[in-house]
User: Fold these one by one.
Assistant:
Number 1:
Amino acid sequence: MQRFTGLIGLAVILFVAWLLSKNRDKIRWSTIVWGVILQFALGGLVIAWPGGANALKKFSDGITGAIAYSDAGAEFVFGWLATPAVGGKIGAATGIDFSPFIFAFKVMPIVIFIASFFTILYYLGIMQRVVQVFAIVMTKLLKVSGAESLAVAANIFIGQTEAPIIIAPYIPKMTKSELLTMMTGGMAHISGAVLLAYAAMGIPANYLITASVMAAPATIVIAKLLRPEVEEPQTAGTVKVKIEHEQANVIEAAAAGASQGVSLAINICGMLIAFIALISLFNGLLGLAGPLFGFAEPGPGVDPATTLSLQWLFSKLLWPLAWVMGVPAADCSKVARLIGFKTVINEFVAYAEMSKIPMSEWTEKGRLIASFALCGFANFSSIGIQIGGIGGLAPSRKSDIARLGLWALLAGSLATFMSATIAGILKG
């Protein structure tokens, strides 16, 4: 029954994109059909097929093992604060309620390490070649331009402002359909650096990796439904990657990546402090108004579930969305709440909230769909990030990027929901 519900959800997502299309008569249905088939093929390979699932599990375990390498640097700088085992012993020995996992000292070093590592891969030209392989597949199967396929493929590995750099020379002359596809790719994916950060928070790495890969064809399907191509792309049928070395050698590349990682880590910490505090403030205000609507008044010993809060509002408003995606009824309120946090604030806050929910409170399918549905940068702040980042690469297109911002947010959200729904269908 849940699989049937997921099929309805997939149809609803595609119908919404078609309904809001700028030019339905120009939709290339072969692109849409092959995009959906490619998503099912990619997902089926690692979700429905036991051999593929086992292979991905081993691969994701290896990727997660990279976290241990970041520990060496973190422990040198922060000492026992970056060592959960030591922190746990201190708490046990002193009787102090001491958390063995300190976010800033455990997760942020991973972001810095992976940012440095990825910059080295780019300096060596390895990442560009991997991206090119993905782009060639999408260009041949889905009949999209080389520039947009490269941008979408790059988003599997890097963030929404870094990926467009690969195609920077083409952005000034990209069609609006290509622009939306590029922007949607940024919204529908997460970067490799934060992927490992989420894995360190307890989100299954195999789910995150699969979601990132499946989001590529989903991006093209949704973007081409919303804004079909009506012009002639400059890079139609071609996939070219230009490898440029901004650094003098590998050491400078590692240092440059570390600097970028530090900036990202500080931004993440600052954002989490601000937004989690604001959520608490907003919940406090809602809690005061709650008794007027029959809710309990917040206070010591009062069950938070009985008070009016942002979490409660999201869990009710977005419950139908979670259900139609195939989420088991027992998990719908949780998933709806997390999707609300992800869209209004960002996925980092949503995953932080998800990591607090005990495993015993999840069904396996509900946790899988939640992990997929949150795996993207589609939130309101990303609109500003893309206007600034992509607009800086092509100032002449900044106004077009601004006009497409809300469309990209919608498309990115639909793409991640589409991947989550298909993952749920394949899970059964």
Number 2:
Amino acid sequence: MARIIMQPSGKSVDCAYGDTVLMGLEKAGYALPNNCRAGACGECKVKVTGGQFDQGMVLDMALTQEERKQGYGLMCMAKPISEELTIEWGTTDAQPKLFPPREDALFVVTEKRPIAQRVVELRLRPVGQPIRYWPGQYVTIGNSRAGIPPRAYSISNAPRPDGELVFQVARDEGGVTSNWVHDQLNIGESIKISGAYGTFIGDPSVDTPVLCLAAGTGLAPILALAEAALRRGYKKPVTMLFSARTKDDVYSQGLMAWWRTKHRNFDYKVTLTRENLEGYLAGRVDVVLPQLFPDLSKHTIFAAGSPEFVDTCRATVKQLGAKDELIHTEGFFAQQQPVVANADRLLPL
């Protein structure tokens, strides 16, 4: 058993014999960026400042000889061979550093389909380098030259090797950009997006039951967060409560049902606020939540949707004992502008 020490926070985790550094961090709940897990992409490159490790077989294009001399390693293949291994990762409070946002990255629309009464799903593939992001973040989509103002849309999938981004776009009757997406943007067209932005990523080191609350397309970042947690083997219960006005406003039930079948620790429920139908809960989140979770003192909470929905969620979960430091929210404003994290939370370019 080796100990991995993260600087500048000074926090540490145990790494079992034979495990890679990436595996040790993930088992302790830390979400180190990674992609190929085979020493080929360089996504998990980290500087090692103390101790020794066996790097294993990696590609020179992913880790150059100069980078090796400087102490860098690929954590997906690196195995500690000393009792302690010190790495530079995260911030002073052990939060992951964010990726610097990119401007006008070129993507192609590969799929567009209606998934609910007012919502279409977009799938975009990068022409060049993929945009790097954390689950829960968002990008801006638009076409300023054509008079389509950039608007913020959350990414609804966890990062994938091919760089595909998935979005759910709700039609806003007075919204130029959402109507452009619904009525004019076609499969095969190229668009430019900027990002990723936002800090709605929570604390990946928590080891508590998780409750995700979403309304409307606030489900998008929640889906990305849940997918990432389940993919990396999160063991504590993860429950999702999706609030919609009517059955016609509900989407992604198939995906959530698949997660529930595949992962024993995942469950989801849908509540309708304007209909009372068999198979669905009925009522606003402040009505149904106390019946489902009378005590949330040991839960981490993620809530996303309209500002009013988020405010209601925050007030309700606090009444049920949720701790402020474990409540993470994302309110969607009609004219939301990109929020770039402070420089000390960004990775170097």
Number 3:
Amino acid sequence: MFRGKEISFLLFSLLLFMSSIIISHGIKNIGTKNENYITVKGLSEREILSTSSSWEFRYSLTGDTINDINKANNLSLSKIKSFFLKQGFSEDHIKMGFMEFNEENYKESLYKYRAYISLTVHTKNIEQMEAVEKNIAELYNQGILISNSGGPRYYFDNINDIKPEMLADSIRNAKLAALEFAKHSSSKLGKIKNANQGYFEFLPIDRSLGAQEHYPKKILRIVTTVSYYLD
């Protein structure tokens, strides 16, 4: 005859055993359900040409008085404008930015003041900007030393015009990848479970060139992630 405590222990052990079977079965079902879908990526790329460009640069001037620097700056601006006008730009394309004065307190300083002047040139004519970049040495030869400049930056302003087509293309490529997987796994492709559009990014035409902003030609790229049910 089993005692009361022994019976309770046996019942508890039996319930614990049955619970572990139920939990294990549930975990297996969940795992099986998760395996019934596939996640794939679809890529779309376009080679594009920039539609606008800007070049921001600085140059410095020295003088013993503010008036000396202003006179020197008028001469420098005249040379800079002549250079850009010769390349086909208009004066509206050339914008003067800030003018910063620093007092030189070093014993070795030849002048009392040094000024830094910023200038921005903007155009939608990409060939003009490329020509300017190639011939910038002409300014150096005239005594205008450009500093703090990484060269022109190039932009693509019509991205919204090609976004829908590229997005559709990336989704189509994702579906082709999913169909190929379903074919080789003897499955049938079902409905979309979820999708992530990703984001559009610009890349240099040659992936080893570095920052894409410095090149007129670029690659516009999007990767879409889509999950499909498998039947």
